[in-house]
Request: fold
Amino acid sequence: MKTLRFLAYVSILFSIVFASVLLSCQKSDDEETYMPDFTFTEDVNDANKIVFSNTSIGLYLFMQWDFGNGVVSEKQRANTNDQTVFYSEKGDYKVQLTLWGLDNKLSNNKIVAKTISIDQDVFLADFTYLIDDSKPNFVTLNNTSQGDYDAISWKCNDKEFTGDNIDQIEIYLPRAGIYDVELHVYKDGFEELLTKQITIAQDDPDYLDNMTLVWSDEFDGTEINTDYWTFETGSGGWGNNELQNYTNGDNAEITDGKLIITARKENEFKVAGSYTSTRMISKGKKEFTYGRMEVRAKLPSGTGIWPAIWMLGGNISTEGWPACGEIDIMEYVGYDPNVVHATVHTTSGSGANGNGSSKTLETAEEAFHVYGLIWDNKEMIFYIDSPENVTHTYAPSKKTASNWPFDLSQFFILNVAVGGNWGGVQGVDNTIFPQSMAVDYVRVYQSIN
Reply:
């Protein structure tokens, strides 16, 4: 009996040891399924150009380069394409190649690092800046780069300055805050970037007066300008269970210097496609970052109607909604007459949880009103008719990607919906049709320097 117990014990112990070894081997095999590595050589014609070759082995999903000079590649699918990098200044640079395994977990990625040495300078990128006490919102930039380069450009506050004779320029920074100013220096198709931060102590009291009209559609022609606008079409509900079919311009016309968007009833069934209307967008044609946007319009009326003047991020095709950001300059639902709404939608708050305010406007349906937005890197201010008549302010105290995707371009949308999750809360009154939103103009003002 003791012998049998002993043999059983030995058998169990052997099984545990075997399983441990097996698991250890499997873990080791998993860990060794890929290994990062790369080589580098000088370009045959230029010792300051280094050619990097990915020589990693095994199976992995993504890779990313950090070339040690401030240039970091996008995280990309595994490939073996050579990368040529230009180093303008002599010195030692730590270059890293990061790989993500098949599980695509940051905690399990692998990194290889190597140091390269550059023996000579080509050019040294640098600049100085001066703030005039008598003009505290104007900054003079001076390019002090030394060496052999082809051209420069500047970028600040989403504006880029290029061309000849820009070694010294004056830029206008209207609001108090900290700004990143970039100097781009170019040589043989390669680029070096130097960034410095400039602090502006106060807002310019003449901020709005210093803006210039940079684009407008006055709707003073005979046809809608397709260089500005695209008609979006379809009757799929548009994410809100709406009932209209947006047509290819059949429901929009220009009359007496006004854009007229008309929603019409096609049948009595109150289902998708029972109504037609127009949705016009400026995506890819007229997009803007920051500025003063004004749209002068008169609104339709009746239960079930839902007109809107709004903007969406130009990157919606890649980022999706609401990550791209949405700015509702004006929304109106006919079942709640004479109340207009301004709302911001982001990842941190969208749909019914958007950040917005409502305003009573007794003549919204009878008269034209200006629906305005003042937007910069600090805040958004919504107003009606005059910047003094503020209806809503959006200014997160700590801006993040989830609550402020608004440092990139946005495009305009003009539309009249029927029904839907909001517009159709109290149904649709079929006796009201046709109903039209009239738009006098769309205007964009920006600081030009």
About this structure: The radius of gyration is 30 Å. The first helix runs from residue 2 to 31. Residues 1-10, 12-30 have pLDDT under 50 and may be disordered.
